[in-house]
Write a structure and sequence with these properties.
Length: 85
């Protein structure tokens, strides 16, 4: 996964995380019996994981922090303008 390209100043390293191997096991029976509408992940294996954490300065947000903030659910508003998750 590449570092955020919207960082100002940009980060030194190209990648935040590098994974040599990723294996995901799923419950095929559940997927087939639901005709693909449901699936269950039974195991996730990551091997050769390298994480690079960078900060541009003492008071700045790290590259990992920027990604976590970006992945947070955005607030939605109902018909009355109130915030919903």
């Amino acid at each position: 996964m590449d570092n955020p390209d919207w960082a100002d100043p940009p980060f030194d390293s190209k990648q935040v995380i590098k994974v040599r191997e990723l294996k995901v096991e799923i419950n095929m029976r559940k997927m087939l019996t639901s005709l693909g509408k449901e699936f269950e992940i039974t195991n996730i294996l990551l091997d050769g994981v390298q994480v690079t954490v960078e900060k541009a300065g003492i008071s700045s947000t790290s590259n990992v922090g920027m990604i976590m903030d970006f992945m947070k659910p955005k607030a939605h508003h109902d018909e009355n303008g109130a915030d919903r998750a």
